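Morning F.,

Quick status update on the modeling queue. The single chain you submitted on Monday has been processed. Sequence for confirmation:
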Amino acid sequence: MEPVRLDVESAVRQKLKGRYVPRFFIRWLRHIVHEDTFNDFFKAHPGLTGYDFIEEVIGPNLLNVTVDVRGLDRLPQDSSPLVFVSNHPLGGLDGMILARMLGEHRHWNVRVIVNDLLMHLTPLQGIFIPVNIYGAQSREAARYMEQIYASDYDILTFPAGACSRKIDGRVQDLSWKKSFVQKAVESGRTVVPVRFEGQNSRFFYNLALWRKRLGIRFNLELLFLADEMFKAAGSHYTVHIGQPLPPSTFDRSRTPLQWAQWVRGHVYNLKD
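Structure tokens below.
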């Protein structure tokens, strides 16, 4: 079997649709995305996909991260499909950790809503649900999302749509989008709040701050998320699972957007 390869140049050119991209930029991007490290890993582990791939990435053979999960007893024991909603402090590694952890306790049935750029990580395509967070969704993408919510899959989503930034001196999500509330009510799914304790490097947050101060709209810090993942090697994280929220929770006393912010606040208050 031909090993999977991460091709940064192809991904960039596909996303930018024919625009000129300087060669020095491609070389730099390959370096900060750790293209060679990923491809060496793919070559050493041919055929790995999905949860097995994540286990190898976060395990002792690569990142060697450990996780303490609190509140597992709160997970519903029946097979009714759920919506897991979480803060997004790391922007990638947290998604893999949560997918692996929740999958283990939900019969390997969890699918993760992600930035469509991550579909270039071929081994994870089977558990990813791609969305274009920086552009309009196509009708096909909208129909696909409807199918996912109508399926038996559990869904893990990060309603901020981007990883956390430093806001008012604290690492926290941006405002949460309302779609998970609307979709949960429409599909009759219970929402399970999750809080992931963790943060990226000071460099990451300073870059985001100065990018914003300089009026640069393109999220430069997004390019460094793979680098942040490798910086996190050997780290220990704590995950808190909250009490499930049945769809009847989201009544007409608040708008869907107000409910989304309410759940966001609830997540940040989760303790043991």
